[in-house]
Amino acid sequence: MLSDFLKNNNRIFKLVCGAGNEDAEEVERLSALYSKAGCKFFDVSAYPEIIDAARRGITKSGITKERYICVSVGIKGDPHIDKADINRNLCIKCGSCWDVCLQNAVYASENSYCINNKRCIGCGKCRQVCPAKSISMISKSSNIADILPPLIDKGIDCIEFHAVSNNEYEVQEIWNKINSLYSGVLSICIDRSKLGNEDLLARVRNMLSIREPYTTIIQADGAPMSGGEDDYKTTLQAVAAAEIFQNASLPAYLFLSGGTNSKSSKLAELCGIYVSGVAVGSYARKLVSSYIKREDFWTNDKIFNEALEIAKRLVESVKNP
């Protein structure tokens, strides 16, 4: 069980396939590669077909023991459930959005660029660089009571709630609903973009008040979906956010996320921040993206093994900084 795994392990590597990543083939390939590399904890979007894809990948890795799947759900306004949208009438087809998209979610049509919604994870990098201001972010949310039961029936191991919002009532309402539907391990992914430190702690304490001790993960999200680079500065905000929760001595497991990379565990250790795990998404995907998208990924042992060595080094950097 995941609860036993968390209790008995330190600095767990968690692969984040992307809360908004609905590309089943990519998720299957990522899961196979990182499972083979030693990853045991996988975060995927909240769709039955994506859970199935992750399981197929894990099975293909040949290692199914101690492999756990977490699904991510969010609240309207949380960037993890946003999707980019390009206004074709405004697009000047300069290619800036294509250049910065780490998910290969941008493609060219006859008169403009377009977004592949299955691949878009809502990072917003395309919007930031668009000179024509033709890109907006659309929040994609669903009714928790409708989407969770089919996922729970799949036998998932964890549900992660991205609780980034100014609406305290709505956060608590969704949290209470998740708790009423699911009795397993829950994860609270939260950053400081909407709340100051005191309000942030008050929210998390309130959320933990209805949970048994150490049945919850607090995932301190430093700078969401910013982990494209591998340096200490990129992961600094994740460590700083984790310090807030560590100082509060909350009865929960503490993970780093948001800008995480191969330096995250080392920086946390240098700063005296003791985490149970590190969730790596953008950087983990970027490292192997050129291999993952190859047509011969499954059949070319040389290509797979090259990617595997890269993935192994990242997994080991978390466990043994």
Question: How would you describe this structure to a colleague?
Answer:
The protein has 321 residues and is α/β, with parallel strands linked by helices. It has 2 domains: 2-77 and 141-319, Alpha-Beta Barrel (TIM Barrel); 82-139, Alpha-Beta Plaits. 41% of the residues lie in helices and 18% in strands. The chain is built from 12 helices and 12 strands. The protein has an 8-stranded parallel barrel with strand order 1-2-3-8-9-10-11-12, surrounded by 8 helices. It starts with a helix and ends with a helix. The model has no long low-confidence stretch (mean pLDDT 92).
Task: Throw out a few tags for this protein.
Alpha-Beta Plaits, TIM Barrel, 18% strand, alpha/beta, two-stranded antiparallel sheet, globular, 8-stranded parallel β-barrel, 321 residues, 12 helices, 2 domains
What CATH architecture of the largest domain do you see?
Answer: Alpha-Beta Barrel
Helix content: 40-55%
Average pLDDT metric = 92
Arrangement of strands in the largest sheet = 1-2-3-8-9-10-11-12
**Amount of beta strand:** 15-25%
- Oligomerization state of this entry? single chain
In the residues, how many domains can be counted?
Answer: 2
Described by the principal axes of the CA atoms, the overall outline is globular
- The CATH class of the largest domain is Alpha Beta
Please tally the β strands and state the result: 12
